[in-house]
Amino acid sequence: MKPVTCDILIIGAGPAGSSAAITAAKMGMDVLVVEQRPEIGVPVQCAEYIPAPFVGQLNMGTGFVVQKVSKMRTILPDGSGTEMAAPGFMIHRDRFDQALAEKAIDLGAGFLLSTKAAKRTEKGQVIIKKASGETRIIGPRIIIGADGPRSRTASWCAVSTRDLLPAIQYSLRLRAPMDHTEIYLSPEFYGGYGWLFPKGETANVGLGMKHRNAPLKGIRPLLLEFVEQLRKTDKIEGQPLGSTGGMIPAAPLEKAVYGNILLAGDAAGHTHPVTGAGVFTAVSCGRMAGRWAAEAIKKKNLGLLSKYDHEWRDLFGRTLDRAREKRRIMEREWTRFDQIIKSCWIGFR
User: Which of 73, 132, 151, 246 has the highest Cβ tally under 10 A?
Assistant: First the structure.
């Protein structure tokens, strides 16, 4: 089978992958994106909040925006808490991901859906496999792995984002409109938190926390209890309209460049270790990865790829490392919840 060649093969069509594709395609690269899901952005695995300045930076319009939010309330078990300004937007995450992919396609990037990167050969070629069973061999000059927290691409580099937290979310009807997000901290939510994020007439109600045994199934009973508590406050009503779940990286990789492979987004642990937020860093790091991949190809110098590690570390490394240290404190001292939580959670700074 004759290999299909391209400049850059991007594995994963989430925010990091599509952002890398946009940037590289703008720079004249022959870009191919493979995504194992049949529909980009589905199922949604996100609380769907993004900060307000980020929307303006995207230059993609607001077709994916549901509503504005102005602040974040953090609520402790006794009902006390704090409030901080947190202007942003609740979005349709599936539409957001699709808008990024469409922008990349408009710039000339190719996309293959229902297609997984099955194997990397000793020659550096990638065998991709469609859901139909058809296989192809891709011969890229550079690979960008943006395939999530359980990244196959990362496994080719003998690394992984092993520190993963399970999260589950329900969609429920709101009894009244809300203009703020709510975070619920509790000793029962080991190393994590519950949330209620308004989304028009509904709300995303979820729970993310550390759990060693059967992670997703293990936290579901706690989420159901949390939902019942919120019902008693008259904030939500009815039965869940839908649910989703997934794993959130809780620590960044030390580096994200391995030979001609770059990792970005969840595949590189580019999420905040305490809050779990990752869309902004995924887009930013995807752009960096796409730009440095294109520069390396244009200048015929793979050594330039190391600049990607320098750049994302310069921009996000200190913040992520500080948050990782706070997470270590949270997990180590969780039995002293009342004493440590205010020094670890961003809402109390």
Answer: 151
Specify whether 79 is located in the same domain as 142.
no
Count other C-beta atoms under 10 Å from residue 98's C-beta: 19
pLDDT in tens, 93-139: 999 999 999 999 999 999 999 999 999 999 999 999 999 999 999 99
Strands 65-75 and 180-184: parallel
CATH code for position 131: 3.50.50.60
- Domain end: 227, 248, 269, which one? 248
Tell me the pLDDT tens digit for each residue of 188-220: 999 999 999 999 999 999 999 998 665 677 899
